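We modelled the chain as a single entity of 112 amino acids. Its sequence is:
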Amino acid sequence: METRSPILRQGLGFDDRRDFWFSIDTLKKYIKYVEQEGKKQGQKELGIRIYFAAYTEPQGNDEFPYSTVVLVPTGRIDGVQKGFFPMPPNNQNLDSINALNYGNAGQPPNDL
């Protein structure tokens, strides 16, 4: 509340979302989906990357319309990455598997 909140409030003219809720059931189903699709594609070391994002326009009748989070599946890249410094294997986004962007946002708390 003492860092970004006043700046965002001043810039946007309202308090935007700061929390997102996903049911355990939704998360379990999404993880199962990522595992199934990743296995079909022969992907290894699956993971989920969470992006903070914002819509450019309000979404529906939402009182706090802009901020969101998107869960994107990842898989391991084998081998050494190209570039100036050799990098160990890391994870890349798997664009062939759908991302999850269906969480519910809460009203910004006044005390956080």
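As a brief sanity check on the tokenised model: Residues 1 and 112 are 5 Å apart (CA to CA). The mean pLDDT is 76.
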